[in-house]
């Protein structure tokens, strides 16, 4: 029995026992973490009051209970209390020896880009980008020559042929734009670390988005006013938020859509590396849009360079985001279902001394 108890407590995934009347009769510690509530406060409560599942489960659940068969549900949004829903897999099975009781295991499925990937993204990006940078440099000069020649030609030709020279000029511009993006990636300097008010960064990004690429969007602010200062490079953070807002705006219906900028504090969020080192990343920033979601085909690779779901996309936006966040020892992840795509960034807070210095400086 004791070993049963310790197995139950050590299970690293949220697990629940549900009785005949759909009430929670036991929850393990990962489950408490998932619900953000203590065992005491949830025992005896109806499970579907505590856990919101975005799928019509009841019938299947009843069937599993009656027939004593397990039930697996992949890729459902599971929410609890005031936390935003996570995409999860549910595994439900009858509890042997307890007629009518079920055990339910919830496995949150974070998409891509978490830190373990972050490092590989960085090195893959670096070699691909290094090559591309060299090419960019070599291609830009002859390209300028081609464009110039086409423009000269266009001065004395028939209107039909004009179409052709216009095409040469337009396509060359497109290549130049791509090359400039590649160069921007390569030119990224190491972050200039200082305490940063994330809400200022979000505001700047929001205003600039609404004036330009995001003019058709509604951008809602949902800020935790007590959020402490982050630690990093404000210009690079701005670039990150702009890239994410741009993607959300491009994914939305041309008639418009809604983006929510959310910040909150999660004091227990900790980054652990495989070498055992780690640090706290308590500042959470979410950029949530209600667009169609990440295309199925590229879902797992969106943070890699040159991966794009768009006809004219270069696929560098998220690679740059991922590089900046990993240069800041932060963490980025994405979850996406149609109608709800969340990019979540977790950052360090500014060291105490640093925020005191700036507080003093600004008081002077
Ligand atoms: N919020 C989102 N909703 C839907 N799809 C998205 C979203 N964000 C990213 N994507 C998908 O991920 C792909 C990669 O994004 P990324 O920003 O890296 O490149 P891009 O936008 O195609 O090109 P670039 O940013 O270099 O102009 C996009 O092409 C798009 O298909
Ligand atoms: Mg982009």
From TrEMBL:
GO terms for molecular function: ATP binding; phosphorelay sensor kinase activity. SUPFAM superfamilies: ATPase domain of HSP90 chaperone/DNA topoisomerase II/histidine kinase (SSF55874), Homodimeric domain of signal transducing histidine kinase (SSF47384), PYP-like sensor domain (PAS domain) (SSF55785). It comes from Ruegeria profundi. Residues 134-351 form the Histidine kinase domain. It comes from the Bacteria. Transmembrane segments: none annotated. Pfam families: HATPase_c (PF02518), HisKA (PF00512), PAS (PF00989). CDD domains: HisKA (cd00082), PAS (cd00130). This is histidine kinase.
């Amino acid at each position: 029995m004791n070993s049963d108890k310790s197995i139950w407590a050590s299970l690293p995934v949220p697990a629940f026992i549900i009785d005949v009347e759909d009430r929670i009769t036991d929850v393990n510690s990962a489950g408490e973490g998932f619900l953000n509530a203590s065992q005491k406060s949830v025992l005896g409560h109806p499970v579907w009051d505590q856990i919101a599942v975005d799928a019509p489960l009841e019938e299947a659940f009843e069937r599993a209970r009656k027939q004593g068969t397990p039930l697996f549900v992949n890729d459902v949004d599971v929410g609890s209390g005031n936390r935003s829903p996570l995409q999860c897999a549910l595994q439900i099975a009858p509890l042997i020896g307890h007629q009518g009781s079920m055990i339910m295991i919830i496995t949150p499925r974070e998409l891509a880009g978490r830190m373990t990937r972050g490092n590989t993204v960085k090195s893959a990006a670096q070699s691909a980008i290094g090559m591309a940078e060299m090419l960019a440099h070599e291609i830009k000069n002859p390209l300028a020559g081609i464009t110039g020649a086409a423009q000269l030609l266009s001065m004395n030709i028939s209107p039909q042929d004009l179409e052709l020279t216009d095409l040469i000029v337009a396509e060359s511009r497109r290549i130049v734009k791509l090359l400039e993006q590649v160069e921007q990636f390569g030119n990224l300097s190491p972050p200039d670390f200082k305490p940063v008010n994330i809400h200022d960064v979000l505001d700047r990004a929001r205003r600039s988005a609404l004036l330009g690429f995001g003019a058709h969007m509604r951008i809602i602010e949902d800020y935790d006013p007590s959020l402490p200062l982050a630690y990093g490079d404000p210009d690079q953070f701005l670039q990150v938020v702009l890239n994410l807002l741009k993607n959300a705006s491009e994914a939305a219906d041309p008639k418009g859509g809604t983006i929510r900028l959310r910040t909150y504090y999660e004091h227990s969020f900790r980054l652990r590396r495989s070498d055992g080192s780690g640090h706290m990343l308590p500042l959470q920033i979410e950029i949530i849009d209600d667009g169609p979601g990440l295309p199925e085909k590229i879902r797992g690779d969106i943070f890699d360079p040159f991966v794009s779901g768009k006809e004219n996309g270069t696929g560098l936006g998220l690679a740059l985001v991922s590089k900046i966040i990993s240069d800041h020892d932060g963490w980025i992840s994405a979850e996406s279902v149609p109608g709800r795509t969340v990019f979540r960034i977790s950052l360090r807070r500014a060291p105490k001394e640093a925020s005191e210095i700036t507080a003093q400086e600004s008081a002077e």
